[in-house]
Amino acid sequence: MSFDITQILLTAQSADGVIRKHAEESLRQFQEENLPGFLLSLSSELANEEKPESRRLAGLILKNSLDAKPMLVSLSLDPKQAPVRWPTQDRQDVILRWLKLDVNTTAQIKKLLLQTLSSTVASARSTASQVIAKVAAIEITHFQGLELIGSLLSSMHQIQPNVKQAALETLGYICEEISQEPVDQDHVNEILTAIVHGMNAYEGNNDVRLAAIRALYNALGFAEVNFSNDMERDHIMSVVCEATKSPEMKIRLAAFDCLVAISSTYYDKLATYMQDIFDITAKAVRGDEESVALQAIEFWSSVCDKEIENLNEYSSEFFLFNDIIEQDLPFIKQALPALVAMLMETLLKQEEVQDLDEGAWNLAMAGGSCLGLVARIVGDDIVPLVMPFVKKNITKSDWRQRDAGICAFGSILDGPSADKLAPLVNIALKSMLSALMKDPSNQVKDTTAWTLGRIFKYLHGSALETSESCQRILTVLLHSMKDAPNVAEKACGALYFIAQGYVDAGSVSPLSPFFQDIVQNLLMVTKREDARESRLRMAAYETLNEVVRCSTEETSPIFMQLVPVIMMELRRTLEADKLTDEREERTELQGLLCGCLQVIIQKLGWMETTKYSFLQYADQMMDLFLRLLASQNATMHEEAMLAIGALAYVVGPNFAKYMAQLYPYLEMGLRNFREYQVYAIFVGVVGDLCMSLEGKILPYCDDIMTQLLSLEDRDLFCFQLRRSIKPLVFSCFGDIALAIGENFEKYLIYAMPMLQSAADNSGHRAINLTDDDFAYTNQLRSGILEAYSGILQGFKSSHKTQILIPYAPHILEFLDALYKALIDDTMKRTALGVLGDLADTLVVHAVTLINQSTSSKEFLEECMASDDPLVEESADWARIAICRAVKASRVGGGALATPLQLHEEETEKRGKRRRRENKGEEGEVPQLLSSILQREVSG
């Protein structure tokens, strides 16, 4: 079948939807039936100067045909026409298809693309640059494509500026595409030479120079060898710094972008240049256009981020010597006085009409943010540099000065010690409360409320001894909740942090006498007509939730009054007219109300004084939640299921009466694996239901396990999504097994191979993994351990423990692999729990396996000496469980020699002694130890 690519592309831009759809189908058919001809035709169309109407779309489709990312391609010149999503492609498929093309075909395509770089149309050149980068990325990773690089470098000798500009842009795109791939150093040198040559001030064309600077930004990841060479580094830095002084604003901005990238990539190479960079950035901050000034500040924020990262590494590795820190963290401390002075100047450059949107960013905001980062690095040393500025400006008649003084104070609160801050806060608090009540400037009130929130975030309770009573603070904050939405939102935030400070205060809280007023005022805020502005309604409900969390047994009756109020409000949203223009607002409100009910359930449902009264509302709550699940809104499904999970946990086995109505929605959520957030919540609720219903979950387990086990067979469109789901599913296996015990037997032959396969892939020490991959590996390990633990405990009291024996060697192999890997204390405790469960459940059969594992002995001894008492306690329990198994094996079949050589009597004495030491003043056993003892007794 022949295809007229020009005609297809033209009809694909028709305003007639039927014609356009037919053209889309023709394009896909052409691609499937004749990929070489398809790519060659698109390349020819893109290179043809006489076809302006079709070449744009040809370039977009060509680029996407060589990309593995989904792309929205507008097939119509009409901006109102919806774009079409070109199919998502697997990266390996894209690479293989290109590499299988005939050499002559690929040579023609590349020739046409290179030809397009000389086009007089900028958009055509830019599209060709991106397509060439896709091709080069494919070929360079397979040791090809070097002729493309050579052709581009040759183009740098062209006289026409548009050709040089296009070549540099293409080199930049190539560097971006292959940023994770190894590149021959000779080619890196050639590319950098061409780029730096194009950046020089004597380059007469600004477009060429701009393209070169942007290309350098993308090429920095390859320049490690070059930055290690003093002469080459000096030349690169000289050219970049020179570009920051260009008369052209776009060039200055791009140069500062490069400086920011250099600061994070080659921080340790910057010492020689820091004085010059400070002068350059200070000049930009004080006199350049805002976009350039913002990037100049971003340079220092990037340096701060790097030094904070280094400080955290020192702390984690216990390198606390000041000389080491001073040696490796010099820049901020060396530039401190001048840098702080420059940043405080920016605080005086507020805009007359402040943009209060969440994503708003201006010079004053950037300066305050950077000042906060500086404070985190230098700690108490920031105080004498900032406080004179605060005192000088905080009482001035000019609102900008008052705002700057308060902002400076609020910005540094995350740095100094509590001892250093508390006296300053006690002095400043009175004037700040007064400013929040009386200052005529909305901007000053906004900044004051924000600063108070930061004060109460870092200093609260006994750390903040002030002459101002709690009543005075609350009076001002509650009054400010009636102010403009932006001020009221930050007043809610300040109260949120006050409440957060007393969540674990026990029965004594200075907020208790004011709970009634607080709740009433927050509810009034949620009903304001302008409550959607500045996220005010959301802030009010989040604050209300935190206030509920810090309630006590004595104040619980106040919060019980909230239950019917919130339920009535939720019912009102369900019965309201479903007007389209109000749908988004109603959905947001329903989510907030569900979240509030969830917190109330979690708090009041477990209090002895309120539990019985609270359970009287369970039927009404479930009715509301089920009505929300009946809606078509996925967000509401998430919020409703979270609240249902909390309610199930409180109601316990009696929750079974709701399962017939709930299960269809639960099953629907478990099928919705493409929506990761929704799926994750539904899987988590299954776990809650298992803990609540225990054996009563059994009638639903076949369907639930069918959905969970089909994970491997589903045609998931994204590998990343599938692997994110796995840890949740494995953990859910453990919850189900723990709930139904020996009835899990029929699922073992399906669940265990999945667990074993995942264990084989995750058990070994992770080397050269990205942070995301390392985090995922640990999540997967935790999910596997939780599954094994639940399965072992579920079978422990049954007469079918022998069916687990074939799986025991693999479980122990997985544990041995984990012992040798880098695992944190939380995973150590979980691994110890599984080791103890193995011994407790399989008893005699486990002893032989454990006897063969020298790793178990070493791991136990290491954990028994841990500084973490919970790790030590878990290790002690595991030893006791193994002792019992050893004793049982001796009784049943004679003494077994074990390298652990555990002395049962001494171990039991130590366990009893530790339990006595861990008892509270009233003789209560801590929760973890109690659960350990419960296991021990049941064993």
UniProtKB/TrEMBL annotation:
Domain Importin N-terminal: from-to ranges: 23-119
GO cellular component, one term: cytoplasm
InterPro entries in the cross-refs: ARM-like, ARM-type_fold, IMB1_TNPO1-like_TPR, Importin-beta_N, Importin_beta
Domain of life, source organism: Eukaryota
Region Disordered, annotated ranges: 897-939
Subcellular location(s) per record: Cytoplasm
Pfam families reported in the protein's UniProt record: HEAT_EZ, IBN_N, TPR_IMB1
Keyword terms: Cytoplasm, Protein transport, Repeat, Transport
GO biological process: protein transport
UniProt similarity note: Belongs to the importin beta family. Importin beta-1 subfamily.
Designated name of the protein: Importin N-terminal domain-containing protein
Source organism (scientific name): Urochloa decumbens
Lineage of source species: Eukaryota, Viridiplantae, Streptophyta, Embryophyta, Tracheophyta
